[in-house]
């Protein structure tokens, strides 16, 4: 009897806990990954994204920021992501479609170094342009990734009435790939750097060479690759290396090369 009573209490508590779930689910009805430090969305609602939506960084010229803006605009316009769980929010066409995301960077000169400031704030009001402000270009790129995750569907919808402040907890966030034990074509390396970037990591540690193979073509020491690579079609030329480094910069990902000398 006593046990039965206890069980009932337990079941009631579980039912209450489950019933209260939708309330907390409302607050996080769109999951941004990785979770921003501050995500304030008091009344979850969404509106249409205008078919002429644009991202602009007024008066700011930066080759890698421009490249990231172009990439994200294209992603936003073509991906039409359908969330597995439909977001719990009020969709309304009574607020006008979102036309513009404005990007402001305070310091356009900060290089992509360890511990560079990657903080950003993103405000998407219910009316008027959305605002992304960041100290550096690299923080703006993290904010663009966040914004892209707040757009979904066909026709495109965008979360509005929200404010996000975010900054990474750790300066070094990366992935290591060993291309000495196994050769990976350049395209695979670029795809991996893209994945590093959408997860807001900032380092690609490229373990280029080791005793297993030496795929790096060093113009001053061509024998290293000629004798050390797995084959003439399994090399990284100076052009390949440059392409990988530039691709990394376009994605806010630092390439840290590791060159182990043969026999080490
Ligand atoms: C951009 O520069 C022009 C001309 O210098 C200026 O009139 C305009 O206010 C600037 N816009 C912003 C958003 O700073
Ligand atoms: C949608 O709006 C209605 C009426 O304003 C409100 O009662 C409800 O809580 C809102 N839903 C969400 C998910 O914000
Ligand atoms: C957008 O950000 C800029 C730069 O921080 C600021 O001057 C402007 O007032 C902001 N606009 C809105 C609508 O929040
Ligand atoms: C990064 O920049 C923001 C905005 O300028 C600033 O508030 C913050 O203190 C900076 N963070 C660090 C760790 O310097």
Automatic annotation (TrEMBL):
EC number: 3.2.1.52
Residue ranges annotated for the Glycoside hydrolase family 20 catalytic domain, each copy included: 170-263
One GO cellular component term noted in the UniProt record for this chain: membrane
Cross-referenced Pfam families: Glyco_hydro_20 (PF00728), Glycohydro_20b2 (PF14845)
Catalytic activities: Hydrolysis of terminal non-reducing N-acetyl-D-hexosamine residues in N-acetyl-beta-D-hexosaminides
Keyword annotations of the record: Glycoprotein, Glycosidase, Hydrolase, Signal
Enzyme class, UniProt record, top EC level: hydrolase
Keyword set includes Glycoprotein: yes
GO molecular function list: beta-N-acetylhexosaminidase activity
Leader sequence segment: 1-25
Record-annotated Beta-hexosaminidase eukaryotic type N-terminal domain positions: 32-150
GO biological process, one term: glycosaminoglycan metabolic process
Family affiliation: Belongs to the glycosyl hydrolase 20 family.
Protein name, per record: beta-N-acetylhexosaminidase
């Amino acid at each position: 009897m006593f046990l039965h009573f206890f069980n009932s209490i337990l079941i009631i508590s579980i039912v209450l806990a489950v019933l209260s779930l939708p309330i907390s689910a409302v607050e996080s009805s769109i999951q941004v990954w990785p979770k921003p430090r501050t995500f304030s969305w008091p009344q979850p609602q969404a509106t249409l994204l205008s078919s002429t939506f644009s991202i602009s960084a007024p008066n700011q010229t930066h080759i890698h920021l421009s490249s990231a803006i172009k990439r994200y605009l294209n992603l936003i316009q073509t991906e039409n992501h359908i969330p597995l769980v439909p977001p719990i929010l009020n969709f309304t066409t009574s607020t006008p479609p979102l036309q513009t995301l404005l990007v402001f960077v305070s310091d356009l000169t900060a290089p992509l170094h360890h511990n560079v400031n990657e903080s950003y704030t993103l405000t998407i009001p219910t009316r008027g342009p959305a605002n992304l402000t960041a100290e550096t270009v690299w923080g703006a790129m993290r904010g663009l990734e966040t914004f892209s995750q707040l757009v979904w569907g066909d026709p495109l919808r965008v979360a509005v009435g929200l404010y996000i402040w975010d900054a990474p907890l750790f300066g070094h966030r990366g992935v290591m790939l060993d291309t000495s034990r196994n050769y990976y074509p350049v395209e695979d390396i670029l795809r991996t750097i893209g994945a590093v970037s959408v997860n807001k990591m900032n380092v690609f540690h490229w373990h280029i060479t080791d005793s297993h193979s030496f795929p790096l073509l060093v113009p001053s020491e061509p024998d290293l690759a000629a004798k050390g690579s797995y084959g003439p079609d399994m090399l990284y030329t100076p052009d390949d290396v440059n392409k990988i480094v530039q691709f990394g910069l376009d994605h806010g990902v630092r390439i840290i090369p590791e060159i182990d000398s043969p026999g080490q």
